[in-house]
Amino acid sequence: MTDFISLFDPISIILITIGGILIGLGVHFIPVGGAPAAMAQATGVGTGTVQLAAGAGLTGLISAGFMYSMLGNDGLSNIELVQVMLSGAVGAMIMISVTMFIGQLVYVYCVGVPPVSAKVDKDPITGDIQDIYVSKGTEGHGIPTVSFVSGVIGGLLGGMGGSLIYAILMNAGSPGPIESLLVGPSPATIALAGIFSAGVFYVNAVVASYNIGGTIEGFHDPKFKRVPKAVISCLIASLLCAMIAVPIMGGL
Amino acid sequence: MTDPIIIDMGIVALTGALATIGGAAEDLESDVGSQSNPNSQVQLAAQMDFPHRIFNKAISGEPPAYGLWCASSAVVASVMLAKGMSVLFALAVGSLVGAILLGMFAVTAHMGRTASQSRFKQPLYMDMVVGHVPAIIAHGYIAVFCIVSFSYIMNAIMGHPFPLPLLALFWGVTAGAIGSSTGDVHYGAEREFQNQPFGCGLNASYSGNIVRKGEAGLRNGMDNVWACAKFGGPVTGLALGLTVFLDNWRSTIFTGANAEWFAIIAGLIIVVILILLNRYVEVDGRNAYGPYKEEEEGGAPA
User: Fold this and answer.
1) What number is the ipTM of this complex?
2) Mean per-residue pLDDT for A131-157?
3) Same-domain pairing of B213 and B278
4) What DSSP designation does A134 have?
5) The pLDDT of residue B53
6) Which residues is B213 bridged to in the sheet?
7) Do B39 and B145 fall into the same domain?
8) Is residue B220 part of a domain?
9) Which domain of life is it from (chain B) (predicted)?
10) B280 and B219 in a common domain
11) So what's the pLDDT on residue A70?
12) Alpha-carbon gap: B130 to the closest alpha carbon of chain A (Å)
């Protein structure tokens, strides 16, 4: 019985919950216009919140997995944990930057619209006037600089959260340091940690997307003020996920 | 003796090339079958009394759908590899299974979607099912084969710790997310609404009024993929190829010798360059098109 309780490692559960909150926060930064943006009818990337966040987050998870295998097969030091998290964050940032940039090429050179936000009169970063560029009957189009930078921040937070969850689950599931040093973590542990991280990522991305309600332009969007609600929801959802995932990984 | 780093870079370039082809095929498959956000207009068209001949199979977003096809293919390929089959054979047969699943999905999703619109008098054209599904399977096969192949290279040659099915699942989701975010905008904002004035996005009041007449006869998914293959498909391939190449490049070139921080810094530099490039394109677009002006003749034909 004592063994069963000891599987609920409180530090791992707290860190996974923090990872979940980071993901929920990150999703709010990612500029998504949903279906209207696919018709150049709203500012942001023309896809759903969860879709883009998950695409970026999972790319980050692949980068974090690479970094973990280089550093952490014999357990992670604190600085190595930071490196794994940052590697995941950079992977997610690269994916989302490339996607937004190529999306921008389509908006500007194929659809023929200038990037513009309909939520602010001036771009808070570049100071460019926005409202006179908005086409009639639309809520902006393309990805202005403020939305792009916001998306990069979203990738950073999402990638960091996903990698933190992966690293903690790998630590929870790894055998003792001596066995790890000899044979490394088993493929089953890696697969389970990877799929659990993706699962926690999806849970938090979906919870956050309910808060967003379809479209958000980035941190300058009035909807961004709803973030505190998402933090509480993601905290509860991630805590539940962590309480299931940590004992399973620890029991391997 | 060739320097190992040259071989590593060759492998990274190969993953990038496979991802480029796979991304392009992924986007074009979603244009033939109209799956993704632009399909909301295809769905709406029938409800707005515009019956059409566009294939419609969007019962799921592209990322989870491609995650499923790629993971299924990778599972079959893994089992065959474990039984000692040759790599190319295993990947080809695995991808075939994924493509057949996609075909089954396409048929049932299209029939289900169209049947649900019978109250709006949207017919179910059997010749479209017969004509479009092979093209969907063919494009899907290329996309799935490329994604599973570069996932295999990452797993078996580059030494990524994730098992093949998990890597294929993650890259499938990413490929779907990129296809849905980049190339589909060409299909949604441009190809579906060529009857609207160019260069102002879609006025919300024209929603559902998609182009239904083709260059010859009535327009269908084949006509859409013909147009989107000229811009939307290739740029989607570029996006997936760049993502896979840049991420693998920085992870591979800075391995060992405590160079992990350089991998992170190199990634940050790439992101800063992309922010600056985006700013350049933004300024170029604003200067080229100028502020919005309403046309004197009035909007679009109904």
Assistant:
1) 0.94
2) 93
3) no
4) P
5) 92
6) B218
7) yes
8) yes
9) Archaea
10) no
11) 84
12) 28
**Confidence band (pLDDT; 50, 70, 90) for B301?**
very low
pLDDT of A181 over the 70 cut: no
Over 90: is that where the pLDDT of B110 sits? yes
> What residues make up the domain containing B227?
4-199+207-253
What is the rounded (10 degree) CA torsion for B248, B251, B256, B258?
170
* Contact at CB, A133 and B199, closer than 8 angstroms: no
B86 part of a folded domain: yes
Domain shared by B64 and B101, yes or no: yes
The angle, 0 to 180 degrees and rounded to 10, between the axes of the packed helices B221-228 and B126-152 is: 40
Contact call for B247 and A104, based on CB within 8 A: no
Phi-psi label, residue A142: left if phi above 0, alpha if psi -120 to 50, beta otherwise: left
How would residue B252 be classed by pLDDT, with cut points 50, 70 and 90?
A: confident
Mark whether B64 and B149 lie in a shared domain: yes
pLDDT band at B254 (very low <50, low <70, confident <90, very high): confident
Residues of A in Cβ contact (< 8 Å) with B154: 62
| DSSP per residue, B201-269 | ---GGGTT----B-SSSB--HHHHHHHHTTTHHHHHHHHHHHHHHHHHHHHHHT-STT-HHHHHHHHHH
Would you place residue A77 in the very low, low, confident or very high pLDDT band (cuts 50, 70, 90)? confident
Quote the percentage of chain A above a pLDDT of 70.
Answer: 94
Q: List chain A residues with CB under 8 Å of B275.
A: 97, 145, 148-149, 152
The DSSP letter of residue A141 is E
Question: Per the CB < 8 Å rule, is B200 touching A95?
Answer: no
Indicate whether B120 belongs to any domain: yes
**pLDDT on residue A179:** 61
Torsion over CA: A100, A102, A105, A106 (sign): negative
- Lookup: tokens for A134: 């908005």
Q: Which of A27, A51, A71 to mutate to test the interface with B (most CBs of B within 10 A)?
A: A51
Beta strands in chain A (DSSP E): 116-117, 140-141
Domain assignment present for B248:
yes
Binary contact (A39, B235; C-beta < 8 A): no
Tell me, yes or no, whether B225 and B275 share the same domain: no
Give the residue among B137, B239, B124 at the shortest CA–CA distance from B179: B239
Specify whether B214 is located in the same domain as B280: no
CA-based nearest residue in chain A for residue B210: A39
Domain residue limits, chain A? 9-27+36-250
